Amino acid sequence: MNRRRFLESSAAAATLALVDCTSGPRLNVYNWSDYVAPDTVANFEHETGLRVRYGTYESNQEMLAQVLSGNSGWDVIFPSADFLGPMRDLGLLAPIQHSLLTNLNSLDPVFRAPPWDPELQWSVPYMYGATGILYQKQLMPAPQSWADLWNAKLAGKITMLDDATEVFGACLKKLGYSLNSADTAELRAAAQEARKQKPLLRAYLNAEVRDQAVAGDVAAAQAWAVTAAQAIAAAPDRLAFAYPREGFVRFADNIAILRESRRIEAAHRWIDYLLRPAVAAAIVETTHTATCNGTAYSLLPESIRKDPVLYPPADVLNRGEWLLPQSTGSQRLRDRLWTEMKSA
Amino acid sequence: MTPANRLRALFLTPAAAVMLATLGVPLAIVATYSFLSRGAYGGVEIPWTQENYTRLLDPLYGGIFLRSAWISLLATVGCLVLAFPLALFIARSGARKNLYLALVILPFWTSFLIRLYAWMFLLRDTGLINTALEALGVIHAPLPMLYNEGAVLLGLIYGYLPFAVLPLYATLERQDPALLDAAADLGATPVHALFRITIPLSMPGIWAAAILVFVPCVGTYIVSDLLGGSKTVLIGNLVQNQFTSSRDWPFGAAASLVLIGAAIGMLLLMRKSREELL
Amino acid sequence: MKRALPLYALGAYLFLHLPLAILAIFSVNASRFTIWEGFSLKWYRAMFADRDLLESAANSLLIAVAATILATIIGTLAAYALWKKASPWLAGSLYLSLVTPEIVTGISLLAFFQWIFRYLHLRLGMHTVILAHVSFSIAYVVLVVIARLRSFDPALEEAALDLGETEFGAFYRVTLPYLAPAIAAAAMLAFTVSIDDYVITSLVAGVDSRTLPMVIYAMARRGVNPVLNAVSTVVVAGLGALILISERLRRTA
To answer: Collapsing DSSP states into helix, strand and coil, what is residue A321?
Structure first.
């Protein structure tokens, strides 16, 4: 592209964006970042004639804070499984009308009756993921368990996620407990582990760890599989990922419709579009995520289907444990232990 | 009512209305929340309680308040020391004053977060400073510059320096240069004149700068998360966590009110700066 | 000391602008990571192709301009009134708005909007963001304008009154022109705090009012993104040019 064409196309894009702001009512979709392909929204608009306003968020809390009022203006959201129950109980969600979804059968059998919403009354599973260890291949021996992140030899070169559920989850698993534990003694023991580990840590990092692992500042990190896959794609000869032996966090993000929505039918059309195998496969190919759509999975090229980070074999995945919502008491204890650990 | 009073009342009304609607009423709502109980998934519920305040008496939270105050104090002193000569330079640079002042503000029109990322790149093990020092042979292993208290302090000073420069510049610019000439005529060295005349005359501006830097520093959490690697909890983290991840609004509200109370208390102690500011 | 001061200032400006230089360099780097791989404009192309980014930039500009105009008018009037006669209540609440930590301001505004919207059937949107920005900018405007008023001789106004001007006429034709530079500075400050605000805005923004800092924060939390370097470079270069031009105009005027 020469400079003139570049200027022309950018001017056109700028005009387009300005015109967009002023057009009529739209379907408002609030999703995690990097969860659709660059052309997904445009293709949907082109096909249906509906307009979409697409916003992104980075955490469930951020999304919940926006929609809690019941007058946020969003129509479709993508909460994680452990947030669905609370959101339903708060009366924030609208029921899913299966009669409006033609592609529901393309879901993987596991996700047609998931433990958090067995009849898919309130949600449609979208993507899933897990937490493990991203590490430099030169490390000998390669870390294979959470306990390896307590290795004093790696002091100053380890990072953990900046998330109480994830850090305590790893500690609980290291001790052989359930990561959804609400038991006071177990949680206290886990917090003790976290406190022991803290002096060895470089930092608590979430997605930022990707860049630092690629640059070589970090030797081993607790990381989400999706983040790890992106880092490994940038430095395949240096980085690798392990699903820890003791078990790990599994999570699933689901599509849901807000009760406040006045465009329920359009929302279902969007969901049905995302469920269409060819569309779902195209999304996975550009974003490198793990789809809940079984038919879409079978359409993927072998290099992605066999990717041991994104789509590990069943026996590995079975070591994982789904995150469940916490009771008020347990949430408060976890928060307090987290604050204590961070202040120590 | 005299015409003058009528005009004054007219001019005062819009500001008073905005402040009442966007500050008075909202803070009253937060104050109410702070005496309610946590809803199961966020929000607030009856019964009324003072538990949120008694929880704050816990030494854990006291420690967090103290740590935040301490690091903010260090950042404030750092900002004042660095900003004073710069403000002096701008105040004494004649026709180019506005340009130099604008150059102080210019970096602040890019997102603070992006500038912090730039600092992260400068400071980290494989970053610019370490790479350059290693290439020059000054060091052989990277200096750990990122993810410690020093990095947090640097970020705070960088982030709030203009808040110190502006009020200092405002007082320095108003000082009569004849005073310094007189001092010089009486045999005072420039350094002597600085400490005996310029700085004492700038005290109101110094106090104003101190407050404008200290208060936002106490409430911030982004700097310590990014440059400190989230390894400590500051009062800003505590408040923010209550409204997001822990979804304990009443406790967050109570902590907020204590924080505001502390800020007001400080203002009352430092009457001098009030006279300078408003 | 005569030579030490400019030398020091040079160092201070380097400190303030160094991160910006880094951003500008990496905005034309071909690599997505912070490793130099050669010159490329692809991040600028990506920036202009990103609808979310452009829309939010337009929102940010609209909000900042609207909030700056409103806050400057309201703040200037208030400063004048406060100069005429102190009002402990208004001065106190302006202080309060200045010293309230952002997160608290944001949460309390959100709670307020949610509470009244239950009765009014309104939604968060442009209007709530602009109102919030006006609210936290007023104190800054008052601060700057009142500083200038202190060096204003009230006798000038009295003279105008003696010559038959009304109270408003004296303010409009005598005081206001004197305040012009301070009002411009106040507007600049209000614009600065409005355009970079994230914490408060993210809490009170609705579907149609996502601002540039909100989009930037969302992008940045995924790790370093060179598109952001391109955005910041454009913003700084654009505003820097604006400053230089206005400085040139002011001098020739």
So the answer is: strand
DSSP string, C14-56: HHHHHHHHHHHHHHTBSSSSSS---B--HHHHHHHH-HHHHHH
Residues facing A128 on adjacent strands: A252, A290
Who among C12, C17, C22 is closest to B122 (CB)? C22
Residues shown for chain A = 344
- pLDDT digit string, tens, across residues B114-141: 888 888 888 888 888 888 888 888 888 8
What DSSP letter does each residue of A170-205 carry, written as one string? Answer: HHHHHTT--TT---HHHHHHHHHHHHHHGGGEEEE-
Q: What's the pLDDT band for B47 if we cut at 50, 70, 90?
A: confident
Q: For residue A278, give the DSSP letter.
A: H
According to DSSP, the residues that pair with A203 across neighbouring strands are A159
What would the mean pLDDT of A18-32 be, rounded to a whole number? 67
- The residues facing C135 across adjacent strands are none
Q: Chain B window 118-137: which residues touch A at a Cβ cutoff of 8 Å?
A: 124-126
* Contact between residue A256 and residue A77 where contact means Cβ atoms under 8 Å apart: yes
Q: What is the pTM of this model?
A: 0.84
DSSP label of C248: H
pLDDT in tens, C92-117: 888 888 878 888 898 889 888 888 87
Q: What is the rounded average pLDDT of the residues B2-18?
A: 86
Taking residue B145's Cβ as centre, other Cβ atoms within 10 Å add up to: 18
| Residue A278: both structure tokens together | 């060819």
Task: Tell me which residue in A20, A53, A58 faces C207 most closely, judged by beta carbons.
Answer: A53
Sequence spans of domains, chain C = 57-206
Question: Is residue C154 within 8 angstroms of chain B, CB to CB?
Answer: no
Chain A touched by B45 (CB under 8 Å): no
What are the start-end ranges of the H helices in B45-198?
51-56, 59-91, 97-105, 112-123, 128-135, 149-174, 177-185, 190-193
Cα–Cα dist A217/A222, whole Å? 14
Q: What is the ipTM of this complex?
A: 0.83
CA distance B246 to B241: 6
- The C-alpha atoms of residue B15 and residue A280 are separated, in whole angstroms, by 53
Q: What is the pLDDT of residues A80-109, one digit of tens each?
A: 998 898 889 888 999 999 999 999 999 999
Intra-chain end-to-end CA distance of chain A, in Å: 55
Residues in B touching A200 (Cβ below 8 Å): none
Specify the DSSP element, H or E, that contains C179.
helix C176-195
Q: Is B20 helix (H, G, I), strand (E, B) or coil?
A: helix
Is C57-206 in CATH node 3.40.50.920?
no
Walk me through the domains of chain A, giving residue ranges and CATH numbers: 25-128+250-312 (3.40.190.10), 129-249+318-343 (3.40.190.10)
The minimal CB distance from A21 to the residues C33, C55, C223 is found for C55
To 10 degrees, the CA torsion angle through B217, B218, B219, B221? 70
Topology of the domain covering B61-277: MetI-like fold (1.10.3720)
Please give the helix or strand (H or E) that residue A131 lies within, else none. Answer: strand A124-136
Question: What is the rounded CA–CA span in Å between residue C193 and residue C187?
Answer: 10
Q: Which helix (H) or strand (E) holds B204?
A: helix B203-219
